[in-house]
Amino acid sequence: MIPRDIEAVMHAKLPLSAAWGVRVLEAGAGRARLELPPSQALLRPGPTLCGPALMGLADMAFWAALLGLNEGRDESLTATLNIAFLRPAGTGAVIAEARLIKPRGRSLYGEVTLARADTGAVCAHATSQWVSVGP
Q1: Quick one: which of 15, 34, 45, 132 has the most CB atoms within 10 Å?
Q2: How do the pLDDT tens digits run along the chain, 135 residues long?
Q3: How many CB atoms lie within 10 A of CB 48?
Q4: What's domain 3-131's superfamily in CATH?
């Protein structure tokens, strides 16, 4: 599937991704690259992008990597999401790059790096475990 097809699946099945304007830039072979555009609604005092938005973006990026691997079909569920906030994300766009480390079986595992789009500075790193509930 091409990125815009995966984006369409995400926006249809996870309306929050559409509400936030998340774009799928790349996806396939257990990897995905997403962009979260700037949004005043997602800022916290500082101002900087809030932690819940970064966690949501990390979760969406992991799912996009699974969708890219499974031709747009995936019913897996997040079991854990661990995130380290390394520096403020700022007020601009953020890029999330997901990589599946264990993409098959009942338990799935991967990592997501989140970086400022303007400088490339890594602002957070997440690891996530998902449980496969599909066939």
Answers
A1: 34
A2: 799 999 999 999 999 999 999 999 999 889 999 999 999 999 999 999 999 999 999 999 999 999 998 888 888 999 999 999 999 999 999 999 999 999 988 999 999 999 999 999 999 999 999 998 865
A3: 18
A4: Hotdog Thioesterase (3.10.129.10)
Scored b (16 or more CB within 10 A) or e, 76-93 reads beeeebebeeeeebbbeb
Cβ neighbors of 135 (< 8 A, separation 6 or more) are none
Of 31, 93, 22, give the one whose Cα is nearest residue 56: 22
Residue 43 in tokens: 């800022």
- Listed by start position, the domains of the chain span 3-131
Distance between CA atoms of residues 86 and 126, nearest Å = 11
